[in-house]
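User: Please look over both lines:
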Amino acid sequence: MRDLTLTINGAPVRVAVDERTLLVQLIRDDLRLTGTHVGCDTSQCGACTVLIDGEAIKACAVLAVQAGGTEVVTVEGLAAGEALHPMQAAFREHHGLQCGFCTPGMIVAGIDMVRRLGPQLDEATVRAELEGNLCRCTGYHNIVKAIQAGALAMGGVTAPAVAAE
């Protein structure tokens, strides 16, 4: 066992972990933050994506001890009290989910896209960036729309008017 200190969703955490414990196991099993999902255990699906020091990382591909000293943000840490993060609100508004299993990872991936690429994300860019996040329920159309809207909201940019479909 190793002592581990890190910050999760703004709160300092000190735990003893087995050196083989994955970060996703620490988050879900030990800390009971179950919004981070385990879909494949092979870092293929992206359901376990969290922010580590602001960067989107698949928590099933990181040992908990590797996250020592970092700041980890899970989907539970995005909202400010009752106010959803702009990306979370965009997913709700644009119906960017069906069963919701992949949604936390998609939201976190969307936030990371904005951090790296800015708020003006075109459809092709969003689709390419989502390559590491799998959804088995949808055709990604509303997920892409939600990420674009969330990106604009995060950047303080007003979405252009869209003609009725």
About this structure: The helical segments are 23-30, 86-93, 103-117, 123-129, 141-154. The longest strand covers residues 2-8. The CA atoms of residues 113 and 129 lie 7 Å apart.
